[in-house]
Write the structure tokens for this entry.
Amino acid sequence: MNWGHLLFGFSGRISRAKYWLAILVFAVVSMIDKVMAFALDQTIGHGNYGVTLVLSIVSIVIIIGSLISSIAVVIKRLHDRNKSGWWLMVFYGVPLALIAVAAAIMFAVNTAGSDGPALAYGVAVVLCLGAVALWIWALVELGGLEGTHGPNLYGPDPLEG
């Protein structure tokens, strides 16, 4: 298996198993990043702003690398489902936009100085539920449903030799 292409290549297709393997890699990298940062901050960095700055920069690099890698993995999984990589916007962009609008509504209501209208809270909740529904759809689409059997527009079937 070519780990570089799995995690950072934007072309071709990957199976559900490789998708979940990539998700496992992201989870392990995230845990290692958090544990390392916490341990170093508690031992040598507590109060040392230089160490804290370095740890912050390392964490930012890991987060950006993970974001780019997750986009590549999701695009290849969408390709396996015979969908364009632009579907990524439905699974990443639209939920984030819905949550941003909900947050803006809540901010506006809370800064108005009163409890705010119940309708505004209801709209914010509905927007957040819409984001959750899209994330559930993404989980099913990417991690649960089979890819296209045989070759498609994006390459050969990853399950065939």
Summary: The chain has a mean pLDDT of 89. The chain is about 75% helix and 0% strand. The radius of gyration is 20 Å. The helical segments are 3-8, 16-45, 49-80, 88-111, 118-143.
